[in-house]
Amino acid sequence: MKYIVLGLGHFGKSLAVHLTEQGHEVIAVDKKLLIVEQLKDKITHTVCMDTTDREAMTSLPLKDSDAVIVAIGEDEGASLLTIALLKQLDVRRIIGRVVSELQKTVLQAMQIDEYIMPEEEAAERLAMRLDNVDIIDSFKVSDQYSIVETRVPSKYVGMTLKDANLTNRYKVIILTTVKSVEKNVKGKLVNYKEASGIASSETVLDDQDLLVVFGELSDIKRLIQKSD
Fold first, then answer.
1. Domain of life of the organism in this record (predicted)?
2. Nearest-angstrom CA–CA distance, 122 and 149
3. What is the pLDDT of residues 49-96, one digit of tens each?
4. pTM metric for this prediction
5. Fewer CB atoms inside 10 A, N or C side of the chain?
6. Can you name the CATH fold of 2-116?
7. CATH fold for domain 123-224
8. Mean pLDDT computed over 119-131
9. What is the C-alpha separation between 199 and 93, in angstroms, rounded?
10. 99: closest CA among 81, 115, 83, 111?
C-alpha cells in the first residue's frame, strides 16, 4: 500500500519508518531539510516541502495514495491549513493528528472523521500499565470496552480455553494468544510478537503466552487478579 506522511517529528518519523519496514511505499514530507536528509535511508521516499503550499502539494501523488496522514504536532496552525488544503484537493482518506480539544473540534467541523491523539493514547496506555503490572498493552474500543494484552494468570497455565471457561467466569472474550519469537533480521536476532490466530476452545494456555482479551475493563481486571 502507499502512504504519505506529512510532518516528521517524533511521531511522524516513527510512523513512516514502521510503515516502510512493513513493506509499504511511504512518501514522508517535512519542511526541514536536515530531518529529510537524516531519514532518506530509512523511508521509501523523503521530500522537503512546505505542506501548506498548494502548488508544492499538488506535485505529490495524493490521489494514488491509500491514506495521507498529517502528523504535524507542534504547529497546530500548519496542521489545520494542511488538512484544509488536502480537503480542497479531494484526497479520499485524510488522517489528522490532534494535540488539543480545539483542534479536534475544528477537524470535526471540517468533516475529518479519522484522527489520532498519540500523546493522550500513550498516556492512557501507560497509566493502565502502571495500575496493573500484568497488563502489557491496551486500548479503548469505546467508553465501555477495551482490548488488553496481559500475561496468562498462573492458575490457568496448561488449561484449554474450554476448561478455563474465562468467558463465562469473567464475561470476557479471548481473541488470540501471542508468543514471543526470535527472527534473524540482517544478521541480528530480533524478538517479535506473533499471534497464534483466532483463539478456539481447544487453545492451550502456555505460561509464556500473552492473552489478548476483549471486554469491560472491570471484568478484565477480575481475570488478571490472582484469586477469584
1. Bacteria
2. 15
3. 999 999 999 999 999 999 999 999 878 899 999 999 999 999 999 999
4. 0.66
5. C
6. Rossmann fold (3.40.50)
7. Alpha-Beta Plaits (3.30.70)
8. 77
9. 32
10. 115
For the chain, give every domain's residue range: 2-116, 123-224
168, three cell numbers: 463465562
Q: Which residue has the cell 477495551?
A: 146
Q: What is the pLDDT of residues 6-28, one digit of tens each?
A: 999 999 999 999 999 999 999 99
| In the block, residue with C-alpha cell 484469586 | 227
33, 95, 25, 32: which is closest to 60 by C-alpha? 25
pLDDT of 98 over the 80 cut: yes
Over its C-alpha atoms, the chain yields an Rg (Å, rounded) of 21
- The Cα-based distances of 149 to 86, 96, 134, 209 in angstroms read 36, 27, 9, 10
Please state, as a whole number, how many other Cβ atoms lie within 10 Å of the Cβ of residue 178: 18
